[in-house]
Write a structure and sequence with these properties.
Length: 377
């Protein structure tokens, strides 16, 4: 049976952009992922198909080769990418980090900092993972500790990561002679690509492990406590060494990168280490001067309002902003005041204001006393 067209498999047009293909892949990968369809062989096969299609089409060189030669580009003797993997092989664990949305805190995994590198024979470092963690502005100001839960590929305990059924072994791959790569010639040009028989390991498993199906890794839940320092910004990255995906053939595990996202605050707006807020004050306080309570992230502050303060004036409270992540100290809190004008006045208040207006030489502000200046006619 011939393979389906990669574009049709992803459900995109042949001129689809990288973002469009990525969106289409994620939608299908989440739908057909084995964790969501346990025991469903059809769903597992579909997951591998969409993963293989995306693995080829996301790479510009592989996509160009596929557009020109079709599936023949990745067969032995075809037009494979120099030094890269062929489209005929796909490791679903490599794509898992893009498809899975982790629980607890809204974590999303995706390719991060290049992952585990190329597939040649020998031990392979595991892929790095990314976890997006949302915290409040208060937590960013004070620092906090979070426990996050996520899914990752870990070494199979049944076969100790070898991929072989206990009691079984491995033999040297007859196709590549243990090199993990094969060469093909096209005219005067020689190309090397991952061996399609052993997937680059250089060895063949006599009897694949029944738990991991020869992969040497299984998907499992993990958790880790993360200490978040005071002063972090949105986009700050924390690294947890060795908490990424397990390596292959005895290779080391990748790392877990936690990317911080600070929620918007209902009162404060952040700019670098400074905070901004707006404070309504009575027009009598603005005119006569006095003191006003100001909210801060660390409790209440006190702001001195000079007499005659105009609406829109900004005051600075030093050291009431965010802690500086590096260098110590804290930013400032900038408070912009808005003078409130009363919308309803009782008779006594109205009379007092009219007297004030008259004493200030502003008879146009009075009303109901016959002293209002005529503006028209």
């Amino acid at each position: 049976m011939s393979k389906a067209d990669y574009y049709e498999t992803l459900g995109v047009s042949r001129d689809a952009s990288g973002d469009e293909m990525k969106k289409a892949y994620r939608k299908q990968a989440v739908k057909y992922h084995p964790d969501k369809n346990p025991g469903d062989a059809t769903a597992e096969a579909k997951f591998k198909e969409v993963s293989e299609a995306y693995d080829v089409l996301k790479d510009e060189d592989k996509r160009a080769a596929y557009d020109r030669y079709g599936h023949d580009a990745f067969q032995q003797g075809g037009m494979g990418r120099a030094g890269g993997g062929g489209g005929g092989f796909h490791d679903p664990f490599d794509m898992f980090r893009e498809a899975f949305s982790g629980g607890g805190g809204g974590g999303i995994f995706e390719e991060f900092f290049g992952g585990g590198g190329g597939r040649s024979g020998g031990a392979q470092r595991g892929s790095d993972l990314r976890y997006d963690l949302e915290i409040t502005l208060e937590e960013a100001a004070e620092g906090t500790e979070k426990e996050i839960r996520y899914k990752r590929a870990v070494s199979c305990s049944a076969c100790s990561g070898s991929g072989a059924e206990p009691g079984s072994g491995k033999t040297t791959c007859q196709t590549c002679g243990g090199a993990g790569q094969v060469s093909s010639n096209r005219g005067f040009i020689s190309f090397r690509q991952v061996c399609p028989n052993c997937s680059g390991s250089g060895q063949q498993i006599d009897k694949p492990c029944s738990d991991c199906r020869g992969e040497g890794r299984v998907i499992d839940s993990s958790q880790v406590k993360v200490r978040i320092p005071a002063g972090v910004h949105t986009g700050s990255k924390l690294r947890s060494a060795g908490k990424g995906e397990a390596g292959q053939s005895g290779g080391p595990s990748g790392d877990l990168y936690i990317v911080i996202h600070v929620k918007e605050h209902e009162l404060f707006e952040r700019q670098d280490d400074d905070l901004f807020c707006e404070l309504p004050i009575k027009f009598t306080l603005a005119a006569l001067g006095g003191a006003a309570d100001v909210p801060t992230l660390f409790g209440k502050g006190n702001l001195k309002i000079p007499a005659g303060t105009q609406s829109g004036t900004t005051f600075r409270l030093r050291g009431q902003g965010m802690p500086r992540l590096r260098g110590g100290g804290q930013g400032d809190l900038l408070v912009r005041v808005h003078v409130e004008v009363p919308t309803k006045l009782n008779n006594e208040q109205k009379k007092l204001l009219e007297d004030y207006a008259e004493a200030s030489g502003d008879p146009a502000a009075t009303s109901g006393s016959g002293k209002k200046r005529k503006f028209f006619g």
